[in-house]
UniProtKB/TrEMBL annotation, chain A:
Protein name listed in UniProt: Putative tricarboxylic transport membrane protein
Top-level division of the source organism's lineage: Bacteria
UniProt keyword list: Membrane, Transmembrane, Transmembrane helix
Short name of one Pfam family: TctA
All copies of domain DUF112, residue ranges: 17-435
Region (Disordered): 493-587
Automatic annotation (TrEMBL), chain B:
Transmembrane region(s): 12-34, 46-65, 77-100, 120-142
Keywords attached to this entry: Membrane, Transmembrane, Transmembrane helix
Keyword flag Protein biosynthesis: no
Name used for this protein in its record: Tripartite tricarboxylate transporter TctB family protein
Xref: Pfam families: TctB (PF07331)
Organism per entry: Actinoplanes italicus
Protein origin, superkingdom: Bacteria
Automatic annotation (TrEMBL), chain C:
PROSITE patterns for the chain: PROKAR_LIPOPROTEIN
Keyword Magnesium: no
Entry protein name: Tripartite-type tricarboxylate transporter receptor subunit TctC
Organism: Actinoplanes italicus
Similarity remark: Belongs to the UPF0065 (bug) family.
InterPro entries with a match to the protein in the record: BUG (IPR005064), Bug_dom1 (IPR042100)
Entry keyword set: Receptor
Pfam families tied to this protein: TctC
Gene3D superfamilies xrefs: Bordetella uptake gene, domain 1, Periplasmic binding protein-like II
Length: 587, 150, 329
């Protein structure tokens, strides 16, 4: 324990405090700029760290890493530009909140959630790092296969569009992920002979194009149809109600983030996705999600920050970098003459605890910095759309270039921007496509690796303890809602969809939701706060099937269009990825 | 959400537009299947699975095309989008040879003045400002190797 | 319209102060008299932060001091460096664009990809060799494997992790197990860290990774070194035999070199070589090499071409002899 306290002494040295601050400021800046990610920034700054003490260097570099996480949130919320895969989920409700003039609340809750998630994760890291490190090793290809599969099923359930549309978009995302040289045979797939595509498509052009640029193009057209007043900013701070509403989400997000963050590869993305899906499923009003639910920002932001912190565990206690940024920090440590590995804690306790404890300070600094900055950031939304649009477009184009220093990537952003625009016109949500793209190569490569390990025998997935458990969870996600649908179809209750259609004036989501839950869920509707309701099959049902987002006012623009579509399709739908489920006719 | 006027909803296209969207999904799936067949088993297996799934989903979309909310129609203001995309294509085509400064200035100006109907004064001032800030940020501070003239 | 005036002034000022741009159009090529008169771009075909990138950056710093001009590292990742190599081939041969070329691209990747995608090192001008990385075969302690003989004696099919298709990791193990007559299945991972994780977690039996990546795990007893694929025993691993000593012919290393486009003037190539040799002598760079467990291979262009072309021929023969298909599933 004294080593832990010594660690604090290390952090509180003025030099280290200063570099911690420098790190989080740089991190926030590059997080705000799309393109240049933390990994590249840290690599560029490496020569600067040559002259520093190892602890100081890592404290600064770690600051860049988690500072960037928070910076990415800002653009996701304000401009619909997710800079990192783990911020994609934040876009759904964060941007919706911003359009309602509640960007301050969204950013504030993200800052608080990030702080809590990060801090809880550090506490956990402090006490259990050596114990849980082995957890990362127990996750082999079969486990990742099921995790990715679960993730893709979750993608379809969290989307705000219709279920089939969401799955179709996810399918296209999976297809996009196959572009490039095959990892197993080095065969070129769908590259059209273009060498720039040999390593596949980068996440940044896809996310920036489909979300950010697609939105700008759509609004460009929209702008001339009706004068859209800039969203009135109502309060810069999250309200008391916001905090109360988010507290459960923040708590659960911390746990999910910590656990999944330990897994090398994809941990942060999966954690934000899982945290969001869990909140939507637990919610009494899941239809609010995608329309500006504050928990929809709190949960993923908490989770991805907690994951960012716990992704240090494999590096510091096993010597395995969990992601690209960790790999660069690994390189930085090597240059400093410290090789991260199983013996780091015993050989360099001051470094280990110095870095861990610097994260407490870094999170406090981020919170202190971001709260007063909220007002500044939110002011961006007061800029006229006609002025903001070209600025955003240019940042996107130049930002795309900086990822691989490639003009080709700028072309890709434009292409995906057009696709995003067309999808929006046709009522398809880009979210599933982007997330499926992110998980796609994880799913395919893990699946093929598993089959190599099992000598082609798929029963191997069930016989391993962890993958077996995950398989059971997967079945629960797919089959329970299906069973729910069948049960409900036997009951001659009027469908909620019909009711809503009959009352097109119903513009308060809560109203429709109550009608809906009332008519379809005789389950536990008493007293409960969202936090302590058991996640039983009723919950599953309400999240997956009954809980499809139902429209609010038909006058609203944007995502609501997709909503109406989903409402019309909703009654007969079941997750059609399951081979057992055929598409049924409604009524 | 409720403050917006009720009549700003974009005009809807006919149900046939949903069929077009479904057809695109089927075609993508078909292309994936064709490509996967060329690749053969191994590299082609996974794209084949995804392709088949897309075809099935596309057909499912087609079946419910009449019931689903129709897509929005393209209107005259859609031409603005075409113009915007054209301006970006020109941007990407020339940036490698003449650097990013002049294309950035022109793109910003076109968007501000012609797509955004800002005043001449604002358009010129803002587009110049963008170039200066971008230069300072990307070339000066971040030392990004984007093609630049100066 | 007043606003435009300051703009014109600004533009004029920038023109007067001279073009600092990075476009190829300015300056006439082959300006031998004053080379180098501006910054040199050092392409790196791998992601920022990877081994190759770190080596490039560690070297660019001291070399630019001698050159008197900055050396700007520019990452153009893709296809094990083929993207950057293609860009280098198209760049003006004036000595202002060079690249850190990885050996595997020249002598291993051609065995795994169709001929039209292979990069031929002879189409470039080699400035100087840099250094070599050695591979080590490691096993999970629970397998009980300590030598290649143990693996053979186990008489069971084994699974080995590689760091990818067309890498030294794949080639070394495939050759070793073919020669030892072991029924082994390759499981490709994406890079050294995941392959190492797979060994530590017991997902696979063995893996070949770069020495630096496995050093800590070996010292902590979490991974057992079986053989190295070096030409002689690395100094800090005196007890681990090389594959040659164990009776197998698997001389595979990762090697790196500074390479310029074909036709770069001899003066520029010589000047660059002098600068990089000054860089090699720099103490900080030497320390870097020691820490990363790299073996210096600071030979000139002719010698390097001989090494690499020789390796390609050797591997081609070995692969043909043992009927190995590196692209197989």
């Amino acid at each position: 324990m004294s080593a832990v306290i010594d660690g604090f002494a290390v952090v509180l040295e003025p030099t280290n405090l200063l570099y911690c601050l420098v790190g989080v400021v740089i991190g926030m800046l590059i997080g705000v700029l799309p393109g240049l990610g933390p990994a590249a920034t840290i690599a560029i700054l490496l020569p600067v760290t040559f002259g520093m003490e190892p602890v100081t260097a890592v404290i600064m570099l770690a600051g860049i890493f988690y500072g960037a996480q928070y910076g990415g949130t800002i653009t996701s919320v304000l401009l619909r530009l997710p800079g990192e895969a783990s911020s994609v989920v934040t876009v759904f409700d964060g941007y919706a909140l911003a359009r309602q003039g509640r960007a301050g609340a969204a950013l504030g809750i993200a800052a608080i959630g990030s702080f809590v998630g990060g801090t809880l994760s550090i506490v956990a890291l402090t006490f259990v790092a050596p114990i849980v490190a082995g957890f990362a090793l127990d996750f082999g290809p079969p486990e990742y296969t099921l995790l990715a599969l679960l993730g893709i099923m979750l993608v379809a359930t969290i989307s705000s569009g219709g279920r089939i549309r969401a799955l179709a978009a996810a399918g296209v995302g999976l297809l996009l992920a196959t572009v490039g040289r095959d990892d197993f045979t080095s065969a070129e797939r769908f590259t059209l002979g273009n060498l720039s595509l040999a390593d596949g498509i980068d996440f940044v052009p896809i996310a920036m194009g489909l979300f950010g640029l697609g939105e700008i193009l759509y609004n460009l057209e929209e702008r001339h149809r009706a004068v859209q007043p800039p969203a009135k900013v109502t309060g810069v701070w999250p309200s008391r109600a916001d905090l109360r509403q988010s507290s459960g989400a923040i708590g659960r997000g911390s746990v999910i983030g910590f656990v999944l963050g330990i897994l090398p590869g994809g941990g942060a993305v999966l954690s934000s996705l899982a945290a969001y899906a869990l909140e939507k499923r637990r919610s009494k009003h899941p239809e609010r999600f995608g329309q500006g639910a504050i928990e929809g920002v709190a949960a993923p932001e908490t989770a991805n920050n907690a994951a960012t912190t716990s992704s240090f565990i494999p590096l510091l206690s096993l010597g395995i970098p969990a992601n690209a940024t960790m790999a660069v920090i690994f390189g930085a440590l090597l240059i400093q003459g410290v090789t991260p590995g199983p013996q780091l804690v015993t050989e360099h306790p001051e470094l280990f605890w110095g870095v861990v404890n610097s994260m407490y300070i870094g999170n406090v600094l981020l919170l202190i910095m971001s709260i007063p900055l909220l007002g500044v950031f939110v002011r961006i939304l007061r800029v006229r759309a006609t002025v903001l649009a070209p600025i955003t477009v240019l940042i996107t184009l130049v930002g795309a270039y900086t990822v691989n220093n490639s003009v080709f990537d700028i072309g890709l952003v434009i292409g995906f921007g057009v696709l995003g625009y067309l999808m929006k016109k046709a009522g398809f949500d880009p979210g599933p496509m982007v997330l499926a793209f992110v998980l796609g190569s994880l799913l395919e490569t893990s699946l093929r690796r598993s089959l190599l390990l099992f000598d082609g025998d798929p029963t191997g997935f069930v016989t391993r303890p962890i993958s077996g458990t995950l398989f059971a969870m997967f079945l629960a996600v797919v089959l329970l809602p299906l069973a729910g649908t069948l049960l409900r179809r036997r009951r001659p209750a009027p469908t909620a969809g019909g009711e809503v259609a009959a009352h097109p004036e119903a513009d308060r989501p809560t109203d429709t939701a109550q009608t809906q839950t009332g008519s379809m869920e005789p389950g536990p509707t008493v007293n409960e706060s969202a936090e302590n309701r058991p996640a039983d099959s009723q919950q599953m049902k309400s999240g997956l099937v009954a809980g499809k987002p139902v429209s609010q006012s038909p006058s609203s623009t944007g995502p609501a269009d997709a909503q109406v579509g989903s409402m019309a399709e909703r009654p007969g739908e079941s997750p059609s990825r399951n081979p057992n489920s055929e598409t049924k006719e409604p009524e | 959400m409720t403050t917006e006027p009720a009549d700003d909803r974009p005009p809807a296209a006919g149900p046939s537009a949903n069929l077009i969207a479904a057809a695109v999904v089927v075609l993508l799936g078909g292309a994936a299947i064709a490509g996967a067949t060329d690749l053969g088993s191994g590299p082609g297996t996974w794209p084949m699975i995804v392709g088949v799934a897309l075809v099935v989903l596309g057909l499912a979309l087609a079946v419910q095309a009449r019931r689903a909310e129709p897509p929005e129609r393209f209107t005259r203001s859609s031409l603005l989008v075409v113009a915007a995309v054209a301006s970006m294509i020109v941007y990407v085509a020339v940036i490698a040879t003449i650097g990013f400064e002049i294309p950035t200035l022109l793109l910003a100006f076109v968007w501000l003045r012609f797509l955004g109907k800002e005043t001449w004064r604002t358009s010129i001032a803002v587009s110049l400002g963008i170039v200066v800030v971008f230069y300072a940020l990307f070339v000066g501070a971040l030392d990004v190797t984007i093609p630049h003239l100066f | 319209m007043k606003i435009t005036l300051p703009a014109l002034g600004l533009a004029g000022l920038l023109l007067l102060t001279g073009c600092g741009g990075n476009l190829d159009s300015d300056g006439d090529s082959g300006s031998t008299a004053a080379y180098p008169e501006r910054a040199v771009t050092l392409l790196v075909g791998q992601d920022a932060g990877g081994s190759t990138d770190l080596i490039g950056r560690a070297l660019a710093d001291p070399a630019s001091k001698d050159l008197g001009q900055p050396i700007t590292v520019q990452n153009k990742p893709g296809a094990n460096g083929a993207v950057a190599a293609k860009e280098l081939a198209a760049a003006k041969a004036d000595g202002y664009t060079v690249m850190v070329f990885v050996g595997s691209l020249a002598y291993i990747t051609p065995l795994a990809v169709p001929a039209d995608q292979a990069v031929d090192i002879n189409n470039y001008e080699v400035v100087t060799g840099i250094s070599q990385d050695d591979f080590v075969l490691i096993a999970n302690p629970q397998t009980g494997f300590k030598t290649v003989q143990d693996i053979v004696a186990a008489k069971r099919p084994i699974k080995f992790a590689t760091t990818g298709v067309g890498t030294g990791s794949q080639l070394t193990q495939t050759l070793l197990f073919a020669q030892a007559g072991v029924d082994a299945t390759a499981v490709p991972f994406n890079g050294g860290a995941p392959a190492l994780t797979a060994v530590l977690g017991g997902q696979v039996d063995v893996a070949a990774v770069q020495l630096g990546e496995a050093k800590e795990q070996i010292e902590a007893g979490k991974a057992v070194p079986i053989v190295t694929f070096a030409t002689q025993r690395p100094s800090y691993m005196p007890d681990t035999p090389t594959a040659t000593e164990a009776g197998f012919q698997v001389p595979v290393q990762q090697s790196r070199a500074i390479v310029a486009p074909k036709g770069t003037p001899k003066e520029a190539v010589d000047r660059l070589r002098t600068a990089f040799q000054k860089g090699f002598a720099d103490q900080a760079y030497k320390d870097f090499n020691t820490k990363r467990l790299l073996t210096a291979n600071e030979v000139d262009g002719t010698a390097l071409l001989q090494q690499w072309n020789g390796s390609l021929q050797t591997y081609r023969d070995l692969v043909a002899q043992h009927k190995i298909d590196l692209t197989a599933k």
